[in-house]
Write a structure and sequence with these properties.
By secondary structure, the protein is of the alpha+beta class. Helices cover about 45% and strands about 20% of the residues.
Length: about 280
């Protein structure tokens, strides 16, 4: 679900690489929170009638409160003879919002250096931000999407922390050998079992398609499930409300097929280690 692009070459992911990409995806989402919060604050101060999701609540609330109490909104927002605070209060609220954004920025910089404690810190303050949003705003149709996005960010940060811990628990010899597995593996001749025939009547979205030596290979999303479909048969699947890095695998006709998502913006299909198709996704 992360929309930031990745310049690295797409490839079939080993378990270690999947964990690394989950961690990177978590950092990307944290960066999105900072960026959209800053954009929303600028739009608020300039009285633009626009608001982007994926934003932290408390920094925005601080600026909103400062503007309201200092009489910076259009006159129709106020009752007659309302007393306003000095503009210095607005400056203080702006300073508080900037400090909070800096905390997120420092957390992102340090977590990018593999200091996972800072990612945990960012998770803690974003949970507090979400709690404040739930307490201080009415739950209604307008706020549901914002609540869902806050929940998504929390899940993403938790998965990033878990991915880091799992990476550190990988045996060193396994981590070192993973990079050489694809090159050293003997061809697998046993075909994978078919899970089911692909249901062509159900509503679905094709994520990526490739052709290889007469095989039609595609990854499609059906509700919450990504399916690896080869010649109309489903061989592997990945079920999740929101997508993280994953690789779907199957062996058909002695050929090893690997397809999936790198956790940032790249979809890929490999057959016996050869890149068959790649695609950049924004959603």
């Amino acid at each position: 679900m992360s929309i930031l692009k990745n310049n690295q070459k797409s490839k079939a992911l080993s378990p270690k690489e999947e964990l690394e990409n989950k961690y990177k995806s978590s950092l990307s989402n944290l960066l999105l929170v900072m960026a959209f919060t800053a954009i929303n604050i600028v739009l608020l101060v300039t009285n633009a009638d626009t608001y982007f999701l994926f934003s932290a609540f408390i920094p925005y609330l601080c600026v909103d409160t400062g503007m309201y109490l200092c009489g910076m909104y259009p006159q129709e927002y106020y009752v007659e003879n309302e007393v306003f605070l000095d503009k210095s209060f607005f400056a203080v609220m702006i300073a508080v919002a900037i400090v909070m954004l800096l905390l997120y920025l420092i957390s992102w910089i340090m977590a990018k250096k593999q200091k996972v404690g800072w990612l945990i810190f960012a998770l803690a303050i974003f949970i507090a931000d979400t709690a404040a949003m739930l307490v201080l705003t009415e739950i209604g149709a307008d706020s549901i999407i914002d609540i869902v996005f806050h929940g998504w960010v929390i899940v993403s940060l938790v998965m990033g922390v878990n991915a880091y811990k799992k990476m550190k628990n990988l045996p060193e010899e396994v981590a070192e050998q993973e990079q050489e597995v694809d090159a050293n593996e003997e061809p697998i001749n046993e075909n994978s079992s078919v899970l089911r025939m692909a249901d062509t009547d159900v509503k679905s979205r094709t994520l990526i398609v490739g052709e290889y030596e007469g095989y039609h290979i595609e990854v499609r999303r059906v509700k919450r499930t990504n399916e690896l479909v080869i010649d109309g048969k489903v061989y592997d699947e990945y079920e999740a409300l929101a997508e993280f890095a994953h690789t779907l695998r199957a062996t058909v006709g002695g050929k090893r097929v690997e397809a999936g998502f790198d956790g940032t913006a790249k979809m890929f299909i490999y057959v016996d280690g050869k890149l068959v198709a790649k695609k950049t996704r924004l959603i």
